[in-house]
Amino acid sequence: MPIIVNLDVMMAKRKISLNELSERVDLTLSNLSILKTGKAKAIRFTTLDAICKALDCQPGDILEFVNTEKETTNP
Description:
Layout: E1 3-5, H1 7-14, H2 18-25, H3 29-36, H4 45-55, H5 59-62, E2 63-65
Antiparallel strand pairs: 1-2
């Protein structure tokens, strides 16, 4: 998947545990863990908003797009 979730990086930068973030954003540990490990298929804007507020960051600090398509050049 070309969207990379860098939640673990931001959590480490802010020195916050999964348990503490879970309490701050009112999200279950299992759902937050799924997001943290990059296994989530979607995220609600309200959840992203709460995470960004709790970590004092921007959505782009958490989500990253990586283009996995190979570019082809025509001679």
